[in-house]
Amino acid sequence: MNSPKRVAILISGGGSNMVSLVESMTGDHPARPCLVLSNDANAGGLKKAAAAGVPTAVVDHRPFKGDRAAFEAELVKPILDAGADIVCLAGFMRVLTGGFVSQFQGRMLNIHPSLLPKYKGLNTHARALEAGDAEHGCTVHEVTPALDDGPILGQARIPVLADDTPDTLAARVLGYEHRLYPAVLRRFAMGDKTPVLLG
Questions:
Q1: Domain limits at 42?
Q2: What percent of the chain has a predicted confidence (pLDDT) above 90?
């Protein structure tokens, strides 16, 4: 049996998707978490990762004052030190440059709260409601230099209800994110890029 793939997870906040990934990587799972990395020392997810026994690191973006190349030069160091085979973005709220992404091309995943290619960027739930969409959801995709682009590896679809607000829609989508991302990672770690479809 091949040794499990080593997974670094990047977060900026509470890390609920990170927790779902870490909790899934047990038993016969083909991957194991090797690092949780944040750009914010106060990110709540860091304590959750430490409590789960996963090594953590912080590279604060603020001292770099908009110099993304310098920030990313520091950001990549703990990932390389951890020997990560796969990088998962899980609520990491910094746009990464092509220079950073290219180092992990084909090995970096992201989860986005919309049915891509719809609603790249922010405020996806409000935008889906404003458009009158009948369904909404989330997408896991490979990361490429273009924002919220790249091959789609999984999607979960839910109906939009008549009384939905951005908050209620976000809460329902998040529940599916917690199921979809681990399912995609398991398949991806085995070398299978067949899309996972939920809902």
A1: 1-104
A2: 96
